[in-house]
UniProtKB/TrEMBL annotation:
SUPFAM superfamilies: S-adenosyl-L-methionine-dependent methyltransferases, Winged helix' DNA-binding domain. GO terms for molecular function: O-methyltransferase activity; protein dimerization activity. Residues 213-329 form the O-methyltransferase C-terminal domain. One of its GO terms (biological process) is methylation. The gene is tcmO. Its EC number is 2.1.1.-. CDD domains: AdoMet_MTases (cd02440). Residues 65-132 form the O-methyltransferase dimerisation domain. Keywords: Methyltransferase, S-adenosyl-L-methionine, Transferase. InterPro entries: COMT-like, COMT_C, COMT_dimerisation, SAM-dependent_MTases_sf, WH-like_DNA-bd_sf, WH_DNA-bd_sf. This is O-methyltransferase family 2. It comes from Fibrella aestuarina BUZ 2.
Length: 385
């Protein structure tokens, strides 16, 4: 049935569509991974093509409910309750201190969304839910769900004002310590699987393979997962993470549990004003921070990074990429663009824009690595001659 939430699904041509259980041939892929409305039969396909389906109703009525339901389920411990063996509606409601009728409604929606399977009055977690929603699973996005539910959700109310004024909320300026903690936990959750791919596929200067002692600077590096991934791959590499003091207060224990000791260390600072030094780093990474800065600020960061790089060193801007308006739809890049506008007044940038900051800093550009596990993200590389 196309008109249900079940039809609003992520499909990846080339992967298994989770709702339809259909393998799509790789070579038919016109776009990267997309959130789409996916008809279940030829009649629905025709109805969709004939514009008989009220698509905006799905966006306006179904999607907000889906998002909030998933966030509340995580926050109320519903996924973990099922993992711990509370598998009937009443047992889940009792364990999570929820109303049984309301819990039944929530579980129905989450089952339609493929978080649960349901047989004979019992719920079990699907493979997808087990990997991504549980509090203590290594790649879980639980931290992001908590942050989005407790800190970010009220920000969305301000989207109308942002659209009128163009002025975002600049959350880095006024989070309280508890919110900083949710934020840093969210960053761990958001970048856990990405950091693995970054560690495997990030282009590195030859020095990292050849020399015994090499240095990395990780600007806005927070939890340090990207630094750790590279340091595990290159035994001679050590990394300095510069981040805001309030972030480091919360991120320090998150980095400590990765067990890298002094090889990956935090230094409090401000990327907008600090001098990064002179010819001292082989590699500089700035991951998911350019979208909080204006073009001029990013150009200035690139200039100071270029100064701080050794000859042959590289600067990786790891970012969500803003798709050109009218290009193939890419929901991750375009929705995060609006979201970072709302939250920081800045937003995403195109690859060409990022490369222009690097070229203005006399770095050589050309290489761009897109992620296989995350649409809309790329490493944009500038190299110091
Ligand atoms: C979106 S998070 C990205 C974290 C990490 N690099 C990643 O990719 O997962 C942005 C980080 O930049 C930090 N940050 C924001 N403004 C900064 C500034 N002016 N100087 C240094 N760090 C900053 C934040 O505290 C936060 O830890």
């Amino acid at each position: 049935m196309m008109t249900g939430a079940k039809s609003v699904c992520a499909s990846h041509h080339g992967a298994l569509d989770p709702q339809r259980r259909t393998a799509w041939p790789l070579e038919t892929s016109p776009h990267p991974m997309q959130l789409t409305i996916s008809p279940d039969n030829p009649l629905e396909w025709i109805a969709l093509r004939a514009n008989m389906v009220p698509v905006p109703l799905l966006h306006a009525q179904i999607m907000p409910v889906i998002s909030k339901a998933v966030l509340e389920a995580a926050d109320k411990g519903v996924f973990d309750a099922v993992a711990e063996g509370h598998i009937t509606t009443d047992a889940i409601a009792q364990h999570c201190k929820l109303n049984p009728k309301a819990t039944g409604e929530l579980l129905g929606l989450l089952t339609a969304l493929d978080y649960f399977e349901y047989h004979d009055g019992r719920f079990t977690l699907t493979r997808m839910a087990r990997k991504w929603t549980l509090k203590h699973e290594p790649e879980s996005v639980y931290g992001m769900m908590l942050f989005n539910n407790r800190v970010m959700w009220p920000w969305l109310d301000k989207l109308g004002t942002y659209l009128e004024t163009g002025e975002g909320i600049h959350y880095h300026d006024h989070l309280n310590p508890e919110q900083w903690n949710y934020y840093q936990q969210a960053m761990v959750a958001a970048s856990g699987s990405e950091a693995k791919e970054f560690g495997r596929r990030a282009p590195v200067p030859k020095a990292l393979r050849r020399e015994q002692r090499t240095q990395m600077l990780d600007i806005g590096g927070s939890h340090g997962q990207h630094s750790v991934a590279l340091c595990k791959r290159y035994a001679g590499l050590a990394s300095t993470i510069i981040d805001l003091p309030a972030a480091i207060e919360q991120a320090a224990p998150l980095l400590a549990r990765l067990g890298m000791g002094d090889r990956v260390r935090h230094v409090p600072g401000n990327a907008l004003t600090d001098d990064f030094g002179e010819a001292q780093y082989d590699l500089v990474l700035m991951s998911s921070l350019a979208h909080h800065f204006t073009p001029d600020q990013n150009r200035d960061v690139a200039r100071r990074v270029a100064q701080a790089l050794k000859p042959g060193g590289i600067y990786i801007v790891n970012e969500f990429i803003r798709p050109e308006t009218g290009a193939s739809p890419e929901l991750v890049g375009s929705s995060t663009d609006l979201f970072y506008g709302l939250t920081s007044t800045a937003g995403n940038y195109s690859i060409a824009e990022i490369q222009s900051w690097q070229r203005d800093a006399d770095l050589r550009t050309g290489k761009v690595v897109t992620y296989r596990t995350m649409p809309g993200r790329a490493m944009v590389i500038g190299a110091k001659p």
